[in-house]
Design a protein that fits this description.
With 83 residues, the protein is of the alpha/beta class. It is 36% helix and 13% strand. The protein has a three-stranded parallel β-sheet with strand order 1-2-3, covered by helices on one side. 6% of the residues are buried.
């Protein structure tokens, strides 16, 4: 129940039905992915992070700035932005 599954792979490497079942049953603590989809979005225990594949230097800088802004907004105001 304390385990965290990190999935940064593409497509169907993870059985998301099994992951969601494990989360619901308390056998898995969290599921973190950079490819959210309709099946996982909004599910308890699922967290998403930005996918930065094949990005430019400018895009990486912009993503880092955005991440810092969102983290500061959470720390200072408790806000959580959900796409």
């Amino acid at each position: 129940p304390e385990a965290v599954l990190l999935n940064f792979s593409r497509d169907k490497l993870v059985d998301e039905d099994a992951v969601l079942e494990s989360l619901a049953e308390g056998k898995l603590g969290k599921y973190i992915t950079d490819f959210p989809n309709a099946k996982t979005i909004g599910k308890k225990g699922v967290m998403y992070i930005p996918h930065l594949g094949a990005s430019t230097e400018e895009a990486e800088d912009n993503s880092a700035s955005l991440a810092v802004d969102e983290l500061m907004d959470y720390l200072e105001n408790g806000n959580i932005a959900i796409p």
